[in-house]
Write a structure and sequence with these properties.
Length: 259
């Protein structure tokens, strides 16, 4: 899809001039590429029209620049944009100039076609693993999206990237063995219950965390050491002679002095 966009050149970058431009009802923008960087201002409604049509990812834009001595017309892609999270207004836009005779690398969305897959009618679950594909091609053959017919998929069947038919001049850059879309078997109640039981805290057979085990071992060791210490104190206390106790047999008594 192609768009025509008329923009105005501007001078002065930074937050201050950008705010003044927004107050005047324009959107500050920048055109990168071909060894230069041009500051532009765009009408918000024309920019929103492009965003709503293709989300700015694959639309070729023919830009006419007014008020500049540079090349009046450029072909570009809308690479990035910023939106006010509260008001929803577009705050800034970045364009990237392309040459029509040089390949470009972009991401394009994947659109499922053909209606509801057969496997879904039997209770299957649709899984779309890739919603965008990274491709390389000339700007003239850039597609708006990649169509994938998933209508004939049964349960436990899928479509890999290598199964998708490419148009001339188009090259996929992702892994060819990557699954794009598939229909999985529905999960039975028994399997769901088993998963919930296995993952439940305190389930039977659950191992005690390693830290807790170490802590328990340390505590038990400390308790054992404490018990051993108390036993040793008890033995030492029993071995010591009590005050006032008679001397042991064989000890010599000091002769009593005559009065």
């Amino acid at each position: 899809m192609k768009f025509d966009l008329i923009v105005e050149s501007r001078e002065g970058g930074g937050k201050g001039p950008a705010r003044q431009l927004r107050r005047a009802g324009r959107v500050p923008a920048v055109l990168y590429g071909q060894g230069e960087c041009l500051l532009l201002s765009v009408k918000p409604d024309e920019l929103v029209k492009i965003l709503r049509a293709q989300a700015g990812s694959t639309a070729l834009i023919s830009i006419t620049i007014n008020g500049t001595k540079a090349k009046a017309k450029r072909t570009a892609l809308l690479r990035d944009y910023q939106v006010d999270p509260i008001a929803g207004n577009v705050l800034h836009a970045d364009f990237f100039e392309v040459a029509m005779d040089k390949p470009i690398r972009v991401k394009v969305p994947v659109h499922l076609t053909g209606g509801q897959p057969l496997g879904l009618k039997e209770g299957g679950v649709l899984h779309q693993a890739l919603r965008e594909l990274h491709i390389e091609c000339l700007p003239s053959v850039l597609p708006d999206f990649i169509a994938v017919d998933a209508s004939q998929l049964q349960i436990n069947e899928g479509i890999h990237l290598k199964d998708i038919q490419k148009t001339d001049g188009l090259r996929f850059l992702d892994d060819p063995d990557h699954m794009v879309v598939s229909v999985a078997a529905p999960m039975t109640d028994a399997k769901l219950e088993a998963l919930l039981t296995t993952g439940a805290p305190g389930a039977e057979g659950a191992k005690e965390p390693e830290v807790a085990v170490k802590g328990k071992a340390v505590a038990e060791g400390a308790a054992g050491a404490d018990a051993a210490g108390k036993a040793g104190d008890a033995k030492a206390s029993a071995a010591a002679p009590k005050a006032g106790a008679p001397a042991a047999k064989g000890d010599k008594k000091e002769p009593e002095k005559k009065k």
